[in-house]
Amino acid sequence: MRKEVSKWIKMCTMCQKHRKGKDEKKGLLKLIEAYLLFELMGIDILMNLNEMPNGYKHIIILTNYYIKWPEAFAVKDHLAKTLV
Ligand SMILES: [Zn+2]
């Protein structure tokens, strides 16, 4: 049965048109490159962590992709005025 189905699929032009190749590369990671110091910055926010006694419960991570340097800051909220 399996062989017959496989043979049928190989003969079907519609299946062959939409067939995806075995070596089709999907979702490969690509290198993010920056050529100037502040050309590309990343901002990530880790939210709703366990609140510290002093009220800090989020962490903001800034990454400079040119020098590949991350800096992390604990913050009490993640409002725009806090990030600026
Ligand atoms: Zn078909």
Sum up the structure in keywords.
84 residues, alpha+beta, 3-stranded antiparallel β-sheet, 3 strands, 24% helix, 24% strand, binds zinc ion
Ordered list of secondary-structure elements with their pairings:
Blueprint: H1 2-11, H2 13-18, E1 41-46, E2 58-64, E3 69-75, H3 80-83
Antiparallel strand pairs: 1-2, 2-3
The chain binds zinc ion.
Zinc ion binds next to helix 2.
Report on the structure:
The longest helix is centred in the first third of the chain and has 10 residues, at 2-11. The protein has a domain at 27-84. It has 3 helices and 3 strands. Strands 1-2-3 form a 3-stranded antiparallel β-sheet, with no helix packed on it. It has 84 residues and is α+β, with helices and mostly antiparallel strands. 24% of the residues lie in helices and 24% in strands. Bound molecules: zinc ion.
Tally of DSSP β-strands:
3
**3D shape:** elongated
| Class from secondary-structure proportions | alpha+beta
What's the helical proportion of residues?
A: 10-25%
Q: Determine Rg (CA atoms, Å).
A: 25 Å
Brief summary:
The protein is of the alpha+beta class. The protein has helices at residues 2-11, 13-18, 80-83, and strands spanning 41-46, 58-64, 69-75.
